[in-house]
Amino acid sequence: MLLHGALLAALVYGWLLFRQPPRPAPTLAIEGQVVDARAVPGTPAPPPPQPPPPATAPQTPPEDVGPPQPTPEELAQREQERQQAEQAVAQARQAAEQKVAQEKAAADKAAKEAAERKAAEARAAAERQAQERARRLAEAQEATDAQADLKRSLAAEQANAVRSGPALANWQSLITAKIKSNWFRPPTARSGIECTLYVTQVPGGEVTQVRIGDCNGDQAVRQSIEDAVYRASPLPPPPDPALFDRNLKIDFKPD
To answer: How many helices (H) and strands (E) does the chain have?
Structure first.
């Protein structure tokens, strides 16, 4: 408690000390009087005032004669520098033109190569397409030929089957019988006549040509048989259209 009381007293004392206004600084009282130095005895008199200097006339500025003329050496140096500058400009222009020309040539070459490459690719594609079309056409033709061969084979087999049957023999006997009915036996014909006839006909049975092959008769017999074939036209049609044949071989034995 004593310590707290001492601290509180110190704070109050300090507050009272700083609260008082500051005291003014002391001043010295000095009195003086202004006197003229000429009135003081023993003082030298001041010098008289000097008159002002006379006014001088303004100086004329020197005449402007311009810069000094260059010497011949300087003129030659300037001419050499000018020529060097022009030469440098010409070289720079030439280099720029060469660069532009090179770039243009490179661009043209690249464009030409690209066009050639594109044309080559187009030709290759066209060739591939043509080869593919040719292959397909060949396959289609092979298939068509195979079908045609199959049809011909089937037709031939059917014709052979028909021709190997009794229908062909019956048709040939009808043709032979009609020729015999139209044959007039000549007086020179002997018994046992056997002749091979080659007859050409068109659809419908009309005879267009007759040729006598091996025959044991004379010329009159041969001519009479040929005439009989033409008189028998049109020949009897086959019972089956598959039996029709333009060229007939007939064994004519009238006896």
So the answer is: 4, 3
Q: What is the pLDDT of residues 118-144, one digit of tens each?
A: 999 999 999 999 999 999 999 999 899
Handedness of CA 150, 155, 160, 161 (dihedral sign): positive
What whole-number distance in Å separates Cα of residue 114 and Cα of residue 8? 105
Sign of CA dihedral 100, 104, 106, 110: positive
Instruction: Label residue 235 exposed, middle or buried (CB < 10 Å: 0-12, 13-18, 19+).
Output: buried
First to last CA, the chain: 186
Which of 241, 239, 255 minimizes the C-alpha distance to 176?
255
Helix (H, G, I), strand (E, B) or coil at 99: helix
Q: Look up the pTM and report it.
A: 0.40
Q: Which CATH class for the 166-252 domain?
A: alpha beta
With a CB cutoff of 8 Å and minimum separation 6, the contacts of 175 are 199, 232, 235, 236, 248, 250
Any idea what DSSP says for residue 22? Answer: P
- Structural domain spans, the chain: 76-164, 166-252
Interior/surface letters 148-159, b for 16+ CB within 10 angstroms, e for the rest = eeeeeeeeeeeb
Residue 201 phi/psi, 5-degree rounding, is -130, 165
- d(CA 77, CA 92) in angstroms, rounded, equals 22
Q: How many residues does the chain have?
A: 255
SS3 189: coil
pLDDT digits (tens, 9 = 90+) for 31-81: 556 555 555 555 555 566 666 665 555 566 556 566 778 888 888 998 999
